[in-house]
Amino acid sequence: MSDSLLQRVANGDMAAMQGCIDTFGGLVWSLARRFLAPSEAEDAVQEAFISLWENAGRYDPAKGNEVTFVAMIARRRLIDRGRRVQRQGRVIDEASQLAPPAPVEPDTAVVATNEDATRALVAMESLTEAQQRVLRLSIQQGLTHEQIARLTELPLGTVKTHARRGLIRIRELLAPAGEGAALKGARP
């Protein structure tokens, strides 16, 4: 059996490191966008891959797959960076602490977006477990259908079917009343 990508990285293989960046870059970027402000994401992704390079020797295929290991390393680095940024942000000018806060008007676009997100989450929960898993891996972790197929050990066609049927069902549930029938034949 050939060495895994992370085992080759642990052996100092620079081409394998580039392969890690190509394979797991979308996942790490997705996590960075979830944990950090956009201004911090790029540096955090670089730190995550440096940490992956330094810790690749700790990967044990018997304990889990490469995606899980990479996500764990990246998540830890991103949390560390977020804490560091938060500590730096606590140094606040005394004058700004004394100034009364300005009244805040609710932004109707933000409120509408939050309501849409809540409706989408409720719709997502109505899907089959397989459809939910495929869509979460795709949307939240930024994985391609091919990566999802490898991770879940499902045939590529099955992954695509779960994704399509799940998206169609969500669209039907989110459509205003009376529009669901018109959407049945439409492609997502």
Kindly describe this structure.
Helices cover 72% and strands 0% of the residues. It has 188 residues and is mostly helical. The chain folds into two domains: 5-89, RNA polymerase sigma factor, region 2, helix turn helix motif (Rna Polymerase Sigma Factor, Chain: A, Orthogonal Bundle); 108-183, Arc Repressor Mutant, subunit A. Helix 6 (108-125) packs across helix 9 and helix 7 packs across helix 9 (156-174). The relative contact order is 0.09. Mean pLDDT is 79; it is low at 91-96 and 178-183.
Low-confidence stretches: 91-96, 178-183
- Briefly note the CATH topology name of the largest domain: Rna Polymerase Sigma Factor, Chain: A
What is the C-level CATH assignment of the largest domain? Mainly Alpha
| CA-atom Rg in angstroms | 21 Å
Give the count of structural domains.
Answer: 2
According to DSSP, the number of beta strands is: 0
Quote the average pLDDT: 79
How is this structure best summarized?
The chain has ten helices and no strands. The chain is mainly α. Helix 2 (14-35) runs antiparallel to helix 3, helix 7 (129-139) crosses helix 9 and helix 8 (145-152) packs across helix 9.
Question: Could you give the topology of this structure?
Answer:
Elements: H1 5-10, H2 14-35, H3 38-55, H4 66-89, H5 94-98, H6 108-125, H7 129-139, H8 145-152, H9 156-174, H10 180-183
List keywords for this structure.
188 residues; 2 domains; Arc Repressor Mutant, subunit A; 72% helix; 10 helices; Rna Polymerase Sigma Factor, Chain: A; single chain
